[in-house]
Design brief:
By secondary structure, the protein is an alpha/beta fold. The chain is built from ten helices and 13 strands.
Length: 319
């Protein structure tokens, strides 16, 4: 038997898809979740749903060819999308910051083009699923995955299952009210009060408001992670920004833990995973050590959390 024939007898092959505002990533995996080939592309100029699906199909052809698999080997696909998603209907209700989609029947579009079952969910939910199956939370059935990158969101896993809420909006923690944030009403589609302060874009905007020449060695256009790096090197203004973010993140984690009574919060995304912010947040939360117990871990999967979760969803669908 040829090597290719032996590989095709291993089991089902699935595709995991991570749709972002600027990048599209996908991977083909076997029935154990092991990735065989990857592909990525910029989504610049491909904003419409049909154009994104075209790009996905092109990428799938590429990874199948790279892995030496025929199209008939593909059994299911899973996709993470940055927005509120009706999982039952496979409908992307709305996206913020990024694609600007409204009521896009993404599952239907994918299944029509690929001829296999498709599963579609919010990208943070998908990342939480990945961390629960393959990452930092694989030893617990109750946890919250808190992602902070450009924006902020949470994926909630209770008794091993994703909790999505009545309107598929559970985990929109950027709109939570905690001490120190604005209480002004927020227009639909605009960043919430927490997101405006500790989301990556919010940190950048706050930094620019407080930046003055001579008060810091960092540039006015510094990113959140550059600011946190500066705090570690003794920059006073950067330390002030880090302390504020740690305090608000600490309140957020505390409230999530009290409501869901979960033993673990996993931090993901480029901002939340910064070691300086993790340390400062743990230190801030030590004052409540006797009130509740919650462990804070950094994501083990990092930027692959969404891709791993999408693969797991596709495997469940294939089975």
């Amino acid at each position: 038997m040829s090597d290719d024939a032996m590989r095709l007898n291993v089991g089902n092959y699935v595709i995991g898809i991570d749709i972002g505002g600027t990048n599209l990533r996908l991977a083909v995996a076997d029935d154990r979740g092991s990735i065989l080939a990857r592909w990525s592309s910029l989504t610049t100029g491909h904003r419409g749903a049909e154009a994104i699906v075209d790009l996905i199909c092109s990428g799938i052809n590429h990874v199948l060819e790279q892995a030496g698999l025929p199209k008939s080997a593909l059994k299911a696909v899973g996709a993470g999308v940055p927005g509120v998603t009706n999982v039952d209907a496979g409908l992307v209700i709305a996206t913020s910051y990024l694609l600007g989609w409204r009521d896009v029947p993404l599952r239907e579009l994918l299944e029509a083009r690929l001829g296999v079952p498709a599963v579609v969910d919010n990208d943070v939910n998908v990342a939480a699923f990945g961390e629960g199956r393959m990452g930092a939370a694989r030893d617990t059935r109750d946890f919250v995955f808190l992602a902070i990158g450009t924006g902020i969101g949470a994926g909630i896993i209770l008794d091993g299952k994703l909790f999505r809420g009545m309107n598929w909006s559970a985990g929109e923690v950027g709109y939570m009210l905690v001490p120190g944030v604005s209480e002004e009403p927020v227009e639909r589609g605009k960043p919430g009060p927490i997101e405006s302060l500790i989301g990556g874009e919010g940190i950048r905007e706050q930094w620019q408001l407080e930046w003055e020449e001579g008060k810091t060695s960092l540039p006015r256009e510094a990113s959140a992670t550059q600011i946190f790096d500066g705090a570690g090197k003794g920059d006073t203004l950067a330390q002030k920004m880090l302390d504020r973010c740690a305090r608000i993140l600490g309140y957020t984690i505390y409230n999530l833990s009290v409501v869901f009574n979960c033993p673990l919060v996993v931090l993901g995304g480029s901002v939340a995973m910064h070691e300086g912010l993790c340390v400062a947040t743990r230190q801030f939360m030590e004052r409540w050590g006797g009130r509740f117990e919650v462990e804070i871990r950094r994501s083990e999967l990092g930027t692959d959390a969404q891709l791993a979760g999408a693969i797991c969803l596709a495997l469940d669908s294939a089975k």
